[in-house]
Amino acid sequence: IFDFLNVGPAHFDALLGLIVSCIDFKKTSKIRTYLNELENLPQKYSSNKLNYYYKIAKAYYLKHSKSNGDIADARNLFKEIFEDSNVEFEKKTFAIINYCEIILKNWEPSNQYDNLDEVKKLTLILIENAKNAFSFLVLAQSYLILSNIAIIEGNINESLEFLLKAKTISENKNLNLQNKIKTIYSKITDSQRISELNILAINDLKQELSNMVLTRR
Protein backbone atom coordinates (compact mmCIF):
# COMPACT_ATOMS: atom_id res chain seq x y z
CA ILE A 1 0.00 0.00 0.00
CA PHE A 2 2.78 2.40 0.99
CA ASP A 3 6.53 2.44 0.52
CA PHE A 4 7.19 1.33 4.08
CA LEU A 5 10.94 1.88 3.77
CA ASN A 6 10.19 5.62 3.77
CA VAL A 7 7.28 5.55 6.14
CA GLY A 8 6.46 8.42 8.49
CA PRO A 9 3.77 9.27 11.08
CA ALA A 10 1.37 10.43 8.35
CA HIS A 11 1.53 6.97 6.81
CA PHE A 12 0.60 5.38 10.13
CA ASP A 13 -2.39 7.72 10.36
CA ALA A 14 -3.43 6.99 6.78
CA LEU A 15 -3.29 3.24 7.26
CA LEU A 16 -5.13 3.41 10.58
CA GLY A 17 -7.82 5.58 8.97
CA LEU A 18 -8.12 3.08 6.14
CA ILE A 19 -8.64 0.22 8.59
CA VAL A 20 -11.29 2.15 10.56
CA SER A 21 -13.14 3.01 7.33
CA CYS A 22 -13.08 -0.61 6.16
CA ILE A 23 -14.54 -1.73 9.49
CA ASP A 24 -17.21 0.99 9.46
CA PHE A 25 -18.26 0.15 5.90
CA LYS A 26 -17.90 -3.63 6.46
CA LYS A 27 -15.28 -4.17 3.75
CA THR A 28 -14.16 -7.31 5.50
CA SER A 29 -12.00 -8.66 2.70
CA LYS A 30 -9.55 -5.76 3.11
CA ILE A 31 -9.44 -5.41 6.89
CA ARG A 32 -7.18 -8.35 7.67
CA THR A 33 -4.75 -7.35 4.91
CA TYR A 34 -4.36 -3.83 6.26
CA LEU A 35 -4.06 -5.07 9.86
CA ASN A 36 -1.27 -7.39 8.82
CA GLU A 37 0.47 -4.53 7.00
CA LEU A 38 0.31 -2.37 10.11
CA GLU A 39 1.49 -5.19 12.37
CA ASN A 40 4.41 -6.12 10.15
CA LEU A 41 5.79 -2.65 9.49
CA PRO A 42 9.61 -2.58 9.73
CA GLN A 43 10.88 -1.19 13.02
CA LYS A 44 12.04 2.10 11.49
CA TYR A 45 10.34 4.12 14.20
CA SER A 46 10.12 3.48 17.92
CA SER A 47 8.25 0.34 18.92
CA ASN A 48 5.93 2.40 21.11
CA LYS A 49 4.73 4.37 18.10
CA LEU A 50 4.15 1.23 16.08
CA ASN A 51 2.59 -0.71 18.94
CA TYR A 52 -0.10 1.79 19.83
CA TYR A 53 -1.19 2.31 16.22
CA TYR A 54 -1.58 -1.42 15.76
CA LYS A 55 -3.29 -1.73 19.17
CA ILE A 56 -5.86 0.89 18.18
CA ALA A 57 -6.59 -0.84 14.87
CA LYS A 58 -6.83 -4.27 16.51
CA ALA A 59 -9.05 -2.98 19.33
CA TYR A 60 -11.42 -1.30 16.86
CA TYR A 61 -11.56 -4.51 14.83
CA LEU A 62 -12.31 -6.64 17.91
CA LYS A 63 -14.96 -4.14 19.08
CA HIS A 64 -17.06 -5.05 16.03
CA SER A 65 -16.77 -8.80 16.58
CA LYS A 66 -19.74 -10.93 17.66
CA SER A 67 -17.56 -12.73 20.19
CA ASN A 68 -17.89 -11.57 23.81
CA GLY A 69 -14.26 -12.53 24.35
CA ASP A 70 -13.12 -10.32 21.47
CA ILE A 71 -15.20 -7.40 22.74
CA ALA A 72 -13.71 -7.80 26.23
CA ASP A 73 -10.22 -7.82 24.68
CA ALA A 74 -11.10 -4.65 22.75
CA ARG A 75 -12.18 -2.91 25.94
CA ASN A 76 -8.93 -3.85 27.69
CA LEU A 77 -6.84 -2.71 24.72
CA PHE A 78 -8.60 0.65 24.54
CA LYS A 79 -7.98 1.17 28.25
CA GLU A 80 -4.29 0.34 27.81
CA ILE A 81 -4.13 2.86 24.97
CA PHE A 82 -5.63 5.85 26.78
CA GLU A 83 -3.61 5.12 29.92
CA ASP A 84 -0.35 5.01 27.93
CA SER A 85 1.65 8.23 28.31
CA ASN A 86 3.28 7.67 24.90
CA VAL A 87 -0.04 7.90 23.05
CA GLU A 88 -0.92 11.24 21.48
CA PHE A 89 -4.00 13.17 22.59
CA GLU A 90 -6.15 12.49 19.50
CA LYS A 91 -5.63 8.73 19.72
CA LYS A 92 -6.32 8.72 23.46
CA THR A 93 -9.61 10.49 22.79
CA PHE A 94 -10.53 7.89 20.15
CA ALA A 95 -9.70 5.11 22.63
CA ILE A 96 -11.77 6.66 25.46
CA ILE A 97 -14.85 7.08 23.25
CA ASN A 98 -14.70 3.48 22.05
CA TYR A 99 -14.00 2.19 25.56
CA CYS A 100 -17.08 3.99 26.89
CA GLU A 101 -19.24 2.77 24.00
CA ILE A 102 -18.24 -0.85 24.65
CA ILE A 103 -19.12 -0.61 28.35
CA LEU A 104 -22.51 0.98 27.65
CA LYS A 105 -23.43 -1.37 24.81
CA ASN A 106 -22.71 -4.44 26.93
CA TRP A 107 -23.88 -3.06 30.26
CA GLU A 108 -26.30 -5.23 32.24
CA PRO A 109 -28.08 -4.58 35.55
CA SER A 110 -25.93 -7.28 37.15
CA ASN A 111 -22.79 -5.29 36.31
CA GLN A 112 -21.28 -3.03 38.92
CA TYR A 113 -22.36 0.60 38.77
CA ASP A 114 -18.69 1.53 39.16
CA ASN A 115 -18.41 1.11 35.40
CA LEU A 116 -21.01 3.84 34.85
CA ASP A 117 -19.21 6.17 37.24
CA GLU A 118 -15.96 5.61 35.35
CA VAL A 119 -17.67 6.31 32.01
CA LYS A 120 -19.23 9.50 33.40
CA LYS A 121 -15.87 10.79 34.63
CA LEU A 122 -14.17 9.99 31.33
CA THR A 123 -16.99 11.62 29.35
CA LEU A 124 -16.85 14.84 31.36
CA ILE A 125 -13.11 14.99 30.61
CA LEU A 126 -13.90 14.46 26.92
CA ILE A 127 -16.43 17.31 26.94
CA GLU A 128 -14.01 19.72 28.59
CA ASN A 129 -11.22 18.81 26.16
CA ALA A 130 -13.58 18.98 23.17
CA LYS A 131 -14.76 22.47 24.11
CA ASN A 132 -11.20 23.69 24.60
CA ALA A 133 -10.10 22.20 21.27
CA PHE A 134 -13.32 23.15 19.40
CA SER A 135 -13.73 19.49 18.47
CA PHE A 136 -17.41 19.26 17.58
CA LEU A 137 -17.22 15.57 16.67
CA VAL A 138 -15.87 14.60 20.09
CA LEU A 139 -18.39 16.90 21.79
CA ALA A 140 -21.31 15.30 19.93
CA GLN A 141 -20.03 11.79 20.63
CA SER A 142 -19.67 12.69 24.31
CA TYR A 143 -23.30 13.84 24.48
CA LEU A 144 -24.35 10.53 22.88
CA ILE A 145 -22.48 8.67 25.60
CA LEU A 146 -24.24 10.72 28.30
CA SER A 147 -27.56 10.06 26.58
CA ASN A 148 -26.87 6.33 26.78
CA ILE A 149 -25.98 6.57 30.46
CA ALA A 150 -29.23 8.43 31.17
CA ILE A 151 -31.22 5.62 29.50
CA ILE A 152 -29.54 3.03 31.72
CA GLU A 153 -30.32 5.15 34.78
CA GLY A 154 -33.94 5.59 33.67
CA ASN A 155 -33.67 9.35 33.11
CA ILE A 156 -35.47 9.50 29.76
CA ASN A 157 -35.93 13.29 29.69
CA GLU A 158 -32.24 13.82 30.40
CA SER A 159 -31.36 11.28 27.72
CA LEU A 160 -33.46 13.17 25.18
CA GLU A 161 -31.76 16.45 26.12
CA PHE A 162 -28.29 15.02 25.51
CA LEU A 163 -29.46 13.35 22.30
CA LEU A 164 -30.86 16.65 21.03
CA LYS A 165 -27.55 18.40 21.77
CA ALA A 166 -25.66 15.72 19.83
CA LYS A 167 -28.15 15.84 16.95
CA THR A 168 -27.95 19.64 16.71
CA ILE A 169 -24.15 19.62 16.58
CA SER A 170 -24.14 16.75 14.11
CA GLU A 171 -26.52 18.54 11.73
CA ASN A 172 -24.83 21.94 12.02
CA LYS A 173 -21.35 20.52 11.44
CA ASN A 174 -22.33 17.80 8.92
CA LEU A 175 -21.02 14.98 11.10
CA ASN A 176 -21.61 11.35 10.22
CA LEU A 177 -23.42 10.31 13.41
CA GLN A 178 -26.87 9.50 12.04
CA ASN A 179 -26.70 5.78 12.80
CA LYS A 180 -25.59 6.30 16.39
CA ILE A 181 -28.30 8.92 16.92
CA LYS A 182 -30.98 6.61 15.48
CA THR A 183 -29.80 3.72 17.67
CA ILE A 184 -30.05 5.76 20.86
CA TYR A 185 -33.41 7.22 19.84
CA SER A 186 -34.72 3.66 19.36
CA LYS A 187 -33.52 2.79 22.87
CA ILE A 188 -35.33 5.82 24.26
CA THR A 189 -38.61 4.95 22.53
CA ASP A 190 -38.28 1.32 23.69
CA SER A 191 -37.76 2.51 27.27
CA GLN A 192 -40.81 4.75 27.01
CA ARG A 193 -42.91 1.83 25.75
CA ILE A 194 -41.74 -0.31 28.66
CA SER A 195 -42.65 2.47 31.09
CA GLU A 196 -46.09 2.82 29.51
CA LEU A 197 -46.63 -0.95 29.73
CA ASN A 198 -45.57 -0.90 33.38
CA ILE A 199 -48.06 1.89 34.10
CA LEU A 200 -50.82 -0.08 32.36
CA ALA A 201 -49.88 -3.22 34.29
CA ILE A 202 -49.94 -1.33 37.60
CA ASN A 203 -53.33 0.19 36.76
CA ASP A 204 -54.69 -3.26 35.86
CA LEU A 205 -53.36 -4.64 39.13
CA LYS A 206 -54.98 -1.80 41.07
CA GLN A 207 -58.28 -2.50 39.32
CA GLU A 208 -58.06 -6.21 40.14
CA LEU A 209 -57.35 -5.45 43.80
CA SER A 210 -60.25 -3.00 43.87
CA ASN A 211 -62.57 -5.61 42.37
CA MET A 212 -61.43 -8.16 44.95
CA VAL A 213 -62.30 -5.76 47.76
CA LEU A 214 -65.73 -5.03 46.27
CA THR A 215 -66.44 -8.77 45.80
CA ARG A 216 -65.60 -9.52 49.43
CA ARG A 217 -68.05 -6.85 50.53
UniProtKB/TrEMBL annotation:
The lineage of its organism: unclassified sequences, metagenomes, ecological metagenomes. This is MalT-like TPR region domain-containing protein. It comes from marine sediment metagenome.
